[in-house]
Amino acid sequence: MEDYCVIDLEMTGLNAKYHKILEVAGMRVRSKKIVGTFSELIYQELPLDEEIIKLTGITDEMVKSADSEQKVLDAFFTFLGEDILVGQNVIFDYGFLKQAAVNRKIPFERQAVDTLKIARRCLLDLEKRDLESLCAYYQISMGQHHRAMDDVQATQILYEKMEAEFLEKQPDIFRPRPLIYRAKRQTPATQRQKKHLKELAEYHKIELDLAWDTLTRNEASRQANKIISKYGKMSKN
C-alpha cells in the first residue's frame, strides 16, 4: 500500500463511552514516504489517574496548556481526510474517534489495515503480539512507548517491514477493510440528573470529582448507579 495514514491515540481509560482522548498522533504517507505528521495533547478538566500518568508519562501539568478536545479533534479529522488508516489494534483507537465524530454529528467511516491482525496471521510463533513485542522482534526502536507519536513512528516501520515480508504470501490480510464501531451520540446530562447526583453525594457524605460542565447522560447514570451500588439509596424519610 503506497498511501495511508498511521494513527495512535492515548486515552484516560478503555471505554469510549466514559473516557476521554488524551493525545492523538498521525503520520501521512504518500508513495511510501512520510509527508506530514500531527501530534497534540488534549486539555483535561479532571486530574489524570495515577495509572495513566505512569503508563504514558503524560502529567496534569503537560495537559494544562493543551487545546480543547473540540479544537484538537477538528484539526485531526481534517488531517486524516479520507485516508486509509493503519494502526496497531486500530479498531480501539477508531472507536474513540468514531464516538467523538458521532457526538459532533459528522460522518467518520474509514477503511484500515491492522498490524495486530497481520501479526496474528503471519507471526504464529510469537508468544505476544502487542506493539512492544513486535518492535522487539523486528528490532524497531520505540522511543517512549504509550506516547502517541512514538507509537505511530514505530507502527509505520512495523507495517512496512511486515508488508515487505508477507505481502506476496498473504496479500488478503493487507487489504484495507471497513472499520465497524457502533456509537450513539452522547447528550449532556440533564439538570435533574446533576441534582440527583449531588444529593446522593451529600446524603452519603462523599465527594464527586466530575467534569460537571461536560457530564453526559450516560456518565451521570453510571455515577449514580455506582454510588447506589456501593452506599445504597437515599432514605425517603
What does this structure look like?
This protein is of the alpha/beta class and 237 residues long. 43% of the residues lie in helices and 15% in strands. It has 9 helices and 6 strands, in the order E-E-E-H-H-H-E-H-E-H-H-H-E-H-H. The protein has a 6-stranded mixed sheet, with helices on both faces. Strand 4, helix 4 and strand 5 form a beta-alpha-beta unit. Helix 5 crosses helix 7, helix 6 packs across helix 7 and helix 8 packs parallel to helix 9. The longest helix has 19 residues. The mean pLDDT is 95.
Describe how the helices and strands are arranged.
Elements: E1 4-11, E2 21-30, E3 33-41, H1 50-56, H2 60-64, H3 69-80, E4 85-87, H4 90-103, E5 111-114, H5 115-122, H6 131-138, H7 148-166, E6 177-178, H8 191-203, H9 217-231
Parallel strand pairs: 1-4, 4-5
Antiparallel strand pairs: 1-2, 2-3, 5-6
Helix pairs in contact: 5-7, 6-7, 8-9
Short précis:
The chain has 237 residues and is an alpha/beta fold. The protein is built from nine helices and six strands, in the order E-E-E-H-H-H-E-H-E-H-H-H-E-H-H. It is elongated.
Q: Provide a count of the helices.
A: 9
Largest sheet: 6 strands, mixed
User: Poorly predicted ranges (pLDDT <50, ≥5 residues)?
Assistant: none
What fraction strand? 15-25%
Overall form: elongated
Overall pLDDT level: 95
What class do helices, strands and sheet pairing give?
alpha/beta
Tell me the strand order in the biggest sheet.
Answer: 3-2-1-4-5-6
Strand-and-helix sequence, N→C? EEEHHHEHEHHHEHH
The end-to-end span amounts to: 68 Å
**Using only CA atoms, what is the Rg?**
20 Å
Helix proportion of residues, in percent? 40-55%
**Total beta strand runs:** 6
